[in-house]
Amino acid sequence: MKNLYNIFLTLLLAMFISGSFAQEKSIIDQLDEVAIVDQKVMMPMRDGVRLATDIYRPKGEGEYPIVFSRTPYNFNTWGDGEMNTRTMQSAIDWVKKGYAFVVQNERGRYFSEGDWDILGVPLTDGYDAFEWMAKQDWSNGKVGTLGCSSTAEWQMAVASLDHPALTALVPQGYGAGVGKVGDFWEQGNWYRGGAGQMLFTNWLYSVQHDPMAPKLPEGISQKDLLRLQRFYDMSPEYPKIDSKAALSHLPIQDIIKNQNGPMGIYEEMITRKPNDPKWFDSGLYNDEMPFDTPSFWFVSWFDVSAGPNIAMFNHARENAVSQLARENQYLVIAPVLHCSYTRATENTMVGDLNVGDARLNYDEIITAWFDLWLKGEKSETMEEMPRVQYYTMGANKWQTSDVWPPAEAVMTTMYLDSEGNANTLNGDGKLTPKKPKKDKPDTFKYDPMNPVTSYGGNVCCTGNALVGGSFDQSEMEKRDDILVYTTDVLEEGIEVSGFIESYIYLSSDAKDTDVTIKLIDVHPDGKAFNLDETIQRVRYREGYDKEVWMEDGEVYEVKMTPMSTSNYFDKGHRIRIEVSSSNFPRFDRNMNTGGNTYDETEGVIATNSIHHGAKSLSRIVLPIVK
Question: Which whole-number Å values give the CA distances from 428 to 171, 440, 479, 621, in the listed order?
């Protein structure tokens, strides 16, 4: 018994020494041990505007690489009288790895001076920040950028300026930073196929700063800012709204105004057409701009921007200025919602769909990437890094490839067919490898005042109006204005990985309308889980630089903006396509008049027909991995 008692005392003492029973140190104490903290540094830009910047760097003499995060979001240390520790925890993690961690607000945001434009912050701000950081005596002259969503979306366009200090990028969920790339002309997720994506209307309600909002005086000292930040974080407190009701208001241009929300950039941006020159004068990256920076890209299957994000990776890999940059583009595609990479679990849920264990060691990957490019240290992790890591749902596993789509993917055509009654899931619509010989069109009425309601999907930022992810669509498919085309039960499993092309032949009695499409995995129990969706505003079928109206009775080919996924349709499942003319509030409603959409309050009912025979072969082209 005495020996057991001694063993217990020994173990107890060891636990105290190791800290298991010790009181956890505060974040401030932890920072004080490892970092020099310099908050509210007002970094000067070339036009005299100063940007609020917090700097965390290792203690002691030395020159360190920099992980830089620039954001429109509030990272102030204090809010409502309480300390916010999220940024400081990231700072500790990077400082312990031997990096300086620098976080900065975009101009016009919180303590930063100047005026903010969601997509129009001067590219020179990024260039000037790199210049300033590279010249500090604690800097080794190398900067890597890191962030997700709005904290990532500025990176590509600034990289086009080719500042020598910018050595590597890690953009995550960066779709709103891509204006035009490959088959995607989205102007920062503002559009999809020329139709408005309503996420920005909801997002800007709670983000844009009213021009009449109070500002701190220019030239305020760092000393005063450090004092003020403890009790004044410059963050507006917008009343919560019912986003679902708010987005239903017409005209669209008055939605924020109707909620007594802030004035700002929205009222101007909502009037821009896809080819407006202002899109090309902003902070968006377009594929005519140079690119020459090694980048590790992170994409989500259920994000609003999976397609253009992947297209950006391919563009950089194929068109980067130098061979070095072309050979150093890497991609991860995860089966999660927007910026939810680290929330994957052993049983990852996206909506109602369990996609299995989708975890990945993101911290190890990103650290190895920056160690390589900012420190010159090549780890085993990077030596073994696949060019593309993608998660295949249905099979529920991570896979690797050297290219995207995988080289084994064979583009395989499936045709829409019916006897003219594909309306609802109980109709006679078929998806078949055989070309229909006769055109027996399926007809439905699209009423913009009673649109097909969005249910799940590849979205973000829409508040309570829409929850992203995959949900059983079968109840929705009872609507008469949804055409349903389904394969026979699969006798063997099929992996679809890559871009899905769609060509729909349409006639209408309206000047203009929309075509919507969804890719569905139908399980043996009949549940129909959405994988991706897209839309095309028909007036832009010949390009986004002009509007071409339809004539009653004419049949038009409508090439859809590509969908993207990696999904294993298991034996006993079926592949399904839904076709309609609305998916609201995921996308704004076409009022079928040929008007501006943003200033319309009344629409007309369109009688739309989908053709699928003879010369009008409506079809999808699936990348099937053999």
Answer: 45, 11, 14, 21
